[in-house]
Amino acid sequence: MSESAPSSVTRLVRSVRFRITLAATIAFGLAFVLVAFGLVRSVKSTVEDRIRSDGNHAVRDVAARLEAGESPEALRLPARPPVALVVMGPDGEVVFTSPGYYGGDLPAGDLPERATVVRQTTSYGERLIFYRHVAAPGGRYTVAVASPLDSVRRSVDALSSVLWVGTPMLVALVGMLAWVLVGRALRPVEAIRAEVDEITHTTMHRRVPVPGSGDEVARLASTMNDMLDRLERASDRQRQFVSDASHELRSPVTTIRTDVEVALTHPEGTDWSQVAERVLGEAGRLGHLVDDLLELARIDEGRARRVVEVDLDEVVLSETSRLNAGVTVVTEGVSAGRVLGDVQQLTHAVRNILDNAARHAASAVTVTLGRFEDSVVLTIDDDGPGVPHEDRERVFERFTRLDEARDRRRGGAGLGLALVRRAVISHGGTVEISDSPSGGARVVIRLPAV
Ligand SMILES: Nc1ncnc2c1ncn2[C@@H]1O[C@H](COP(=O)(O)OP(=O)(O)O)[C@@H](O)[C@H]1O
Ligand SMILES: [Mg+2]
C-alpha cells in the first residue's frame, strides 16, 4: 500500500471515530469484567455465609437446650430455616433427627473434638458438617447439622450464565452507542472539510457550516469563518487597489497618446516643443505614481528597512529648503528631534506632507519640531482651505483626492498621505490631521524618540 493513498481499512483504523469507539469499548469491557468477577465472588460468599450462620446457630441452639436438660427425644426445631440436624448418643446411635433427615446425611467418620465444622466430599457433592459435643445431664451427645453446598454452586452458575451472555451484549451495545455518538459529533467536521476544499480565491465569499452544538467543532467553524472574512476583505482590498492603480496609470498614458496622435495628424501646424513639454509632464506624473506604488509595496512587505538613528530636524530642514518659491516657509520652531528609522521612508513622508501644505497654502507653511516626553512631534501648518472634519480619516486611504478636478494636474494620485501613514505606523508612530490656528490644515506626526 503506497503511503500517499491509504486503503479504506487504514483510513478507518486511523479515524478518530474508530479510535474513540475502540477505546471506549475496551475500557467498558475491562471494567465490566472486573465488576462481574466481584459480583460472582460476593454472591458466593454471601450464600456460604448464610449457610454457615444457619448451621452454627441450629447446632448451638440444640446443644444449649440439651445442656439445659431437655431430652433429645422431645426436641422441636423451628421450621425456618430448615436444617438437616441429627443428635447422636455416646455410642454413635441416632437419638433425634430433624424432619426430612435421612441416613445419608450422617456425618461420615469421626468428628474431631476441637473443631466445630468439617468439609466433606460425598457422592452427591461437597457439604459442611457443623457439630458440637455436648455433656448433658442425660449423657454425652453429638449434635450435627449437614449443609450441602450445591446451593452455592447453583447460585454462582446461574449468575455466571447471565453474565456470560450479558457481558458481550452490553459491550457490543456500548461500542455501537459510542460509534453512533462520535459519528454524530464528528459529522460537521466532514462538512467543514468539504466546504474548505471548495474554497479558492474566486469563491472567497463561501463560508463553512457552523453546527448549532456550541462545542469545539462549532468554535473551530466560526473561527474559520472569521479567518475567511479577513481573507476576503484583504483580497477585496487588493483587487480594488489593483483596479485603482491601473486606472490611475491609464490616464497619463491616454493623455500622452492623444496628444501625440493629434500632433501627428497635423504635423505642420504643431508646436512640437509644447507637445514635448506636456508629454514630459505626464511622464513625470507616471514616474511619480510608479515610485509611490513601489514605495507602498516596499512598506507593506515590511522588510529591507535600514534602521538607523535619524535626526528628523535635518530631514525637515533639507526638505523645506527644496520647496518651490511662492509660499513662505517658517522653520523657526524646528528644534532637535532624533528617532530610530529608515531615512528614505521618513524623508519621503515629510516631503509628501510639505508638498500638500505648499500646494494648498495661501501664503505660508509653518513647521515645528520638538521633543515632548518620549515622543518627537512634527507639526506642519498651512493657511489654505484645511481638510473638512469628515474627510480627515479618509484622506489617508489610497487614491483619495478631495478635489479631483483641481488637484489632478498639480497633485498626485492620492497616494501621498497613504504612504505617510504606512511609514509612520511602521515606525511605531501616529499621524493625524487637525486645524491650524490660521484656519488651514495641520498635520501632526508623533514618533517614539530615541
Ligand atoms: N494641507 C492640505 N490642505 C487641504 N487638503 C489637503 C491637504 N493635504 C492633503 N489634502 C487633501 O487630501 C488629499 C489626499 O492627499 P494625498 O494623499 O497627499 O494625495 P495627493 O496629494 O496626491 O492629492 C488631497 O487630494 C487633498 O484633497
Ligand atoms: Mg500629496
What key phrases describe this protein's structure?
450 residues, alpha+beta, Helix Hairpins, Heat Shock Protein 90, 3 domains, five-stranded antiparallel beta sheet, five-stranded mixed beta sheet, binds adenosine-5'-diphosphate, binds magnesium ion
Could you characterize what this model shows?
The strands form three sheets. Strands 2-1-5-4-3 form a five-stranded antiparallel beta sheet, with helices on one face. Strands 7-9-10-12-11 form a five-stranded mixed beta sheet. A two-stranded antiparallel sheet has the order 6-8. Helix 2 runs antiparallel to helix 3 (150-198), helix 5 runs parallel beside helix 9 (416-426) and helix 6 crosses helix 7 (343-360). The protein starts with 7 loop residues before the first helix and ends with a strand. The protein is rod-shaped. It has helices at residues 8-14, 16-67, 150-198, 216-265, 272-301, 312-321, 343-360, 404-410, 416-426, and strands at 84-88, 94-97, 117-122, 125-136, 139-148, 308-311, 328-334, 338-341, 364-372, 375-382, 430-435, 441-448. It has three domains: 1-198, no CATH class; 199-302, Orthogonal Bundle (Helix Hairpins); 305-448, Histidine kinase-like ATPase, C-terminal domain (Heat Shock Protein 90). It is an alpha+beta fold and 450 residues long. It binds adenosine-5'-diphosphate and magnesium ion (MG). Magnesium ion is lined by residues 352, 355-356, 411-412, 416.
Share of helix among residues? 40-55%
Sheet with the most strands, sense and barrel status: 5 strands, antiparallel
Structural class: alpha+beta
Strand order in the largest sheet: 2-1-5-4-3
Gyration radius, in Å: 52 Å
Give the distinct bound molecules: adenosine-5'-diphosphate, magnesium ion
Q: Any idea what the shape is?
A: rod-shaped
Mean pLDDT: 90
Query: Which sequence of SSEs, written as H and E, runs from N to C?
Result: HHEEEEEHHHEHEEHEEHHEE
Number of separate domains: 3
> Are there runs of 5+ residues with pLDDT below 50, and where?
none
Tally of DSSP β-strands: 12
Number of helices: 9
C-alpha end-to-end distance: 63 Å
Taken as a percent bin, the fraction of beta residues is 15-25%
